[in-house]
Amino acid sequence: MPTADSLFRPDLLARYSTNGPRYTSYPTALQFREDFDAADYRHAAADAGAAQTDLSLYFHIPFCDTVCFYCGCNKVVTRNRARARPYLERLKRELALQAACFDTSRAVSQLHWGGGTPTFLSHDEMAELMAATREHFRLPPPAQADSPLDTQAEISIEVDPREASPRTIEHLRSLGFNRLSLGVQDFDPVVQRAINRIQPLDMTRSVMDAARANRFHSISVDLIYGLPHQSVASFERTLDMIVELAPDRLSVFGYAHMPQRFKMQRQMDPATLPSPDERVAILQRVVQRLTDAGYVYIGMDHFALPTDELARAQAQRTLHRNFQGYSTRAQCDLIGFGASSIGKVGDVYAQNATDLQRYAADIDAGQLAIRRGLRLTADDRLRGDIIIQLMCNLELRFDEFEATYGIRFTETFAPELDRLRGFEADGLVSMGNRKLEVNVAGRMLVRNVAMVFDRYLSAAAPLQQFSRTV
């Protein structure tokens, strides 16, 4: 297992820090085209059916009853719970519309509810949505924790501990959910007030205790560094609390301050944000504390206990990456439901209308809400595969790409390999005749390595629209 000292080179992190994609897709959503429509999507779904791969379903529930000032998600802030009902009815109609495009005998091996705050829905509404999903798609029924049925699909949900009681957690388990992702960000009260998210430790502990009592397979926690008033000392206290709670997975994201895009971020005083040097120092302590506590550094900003599926998948070279981040379920066709959701079916990306009214109008008209997307070129597929391999397995085996794509890797990518010579001189990568490896010192900069193979960035894509790589 890499040590914190070997992972962390402050001089290199500072030098390579820039804005760049997180590569939950390639090409990124910036390249989606508005001349792509529902007809293109239906053709892709028909073409993909022959492969009979499993399906992955993503549901976007956009509602939150309070706004977190740092958040850049597509959301609707309201305390009116009645607004969920018409949205739920449209999700049910969308399920029928999407099911008509697919062979629904295909197994669903992954389902995720994100937001927003999915637990904005009432218990009855959650049950209604899951019942409708099982009506149209082959999702395993709820099963006991020790039943083989309970391992057939990864069924996960994002939970806000501020509004999820132990009874809610028990209800989610009864619906078949077996994984939880909890937003925490920071336990420091000063930081919480600055970001408008008051969430004492006991709230989070209560949800985690309930999840363990109900035998959820995995609990993931999200933290954010770079928030107002954070310091190494203050975040150290948060890390101590997190280590005590012992979630199975951790995502520690760097805050992206883009007030020109996200108006709520203007509520935070930029003078209170940590300096670039302080951000790096906080990140260094994150790596040290979590690796000392026994977590495996997966890559980028993800950590997992050695017993977690994520760590095992990386060791077995079966780790994958999609719009939900790192995943153990590869080669699924992803279907997106709800406003702004993105799907990937075969060689096509498709995104629903981001505006709630446009989404509603499309569904009410009896049509899919797809408003933009992209059909991958042969070059997109090749480069996307390279980027996935780098992000997940931290290496490229040239012969695998040559066998799959019929290329000579070192000739096809001679300019990219030449650009990586500087990375090699800095000890971030090692290059041989038949292999490229991301070294331990380069793992925190794997996004930078991947960016070398991104054709759209070299075509002068606006980097400021992405978060910092460190």
UniProtKB/TrEMBL annotation:
GO cellular component terms listed in the entry, alphabetical order: cytoplasm
GO-annotated biological processes: protoporphyrinogen IX biosynthetic process
GO molecular function: 4 iron, 4 sulfur cluster binding; coproporphyrinogen dehydrogenase activity; coproporphyrinogen oxidase activity; metal ion binding
Positions with a binding annotation for [4Fe-4S] cluster: 64, 68, 71
Alphabetized UniProt keyword annotations: 4Fe-4S, Cytoplasm, Iron, Iron-sulfur, Metal-binding, Oxidoreductase, Porphyrin biosynthesis, S-adenosyl-L-methionine
Keyword ATP-binding: no
Compartmental location: Cytoplasm
Main location: cytoplasm
Protein purpose: Involved in the heme biosynthesis. Catalyzes the anaerobic oxidative decarboxylation of propionate groups of rings A and B of coproporphyrinogen III to yield the vinyl groups in protoporphyrinogen IX.
Record family assignment: Belongs to the anaerobic coproporphyrinogen-III oxidase family.
Protein name: Coproporphyrinogen-III oxidase
Organism (species): Paraburkholderia solisilvae
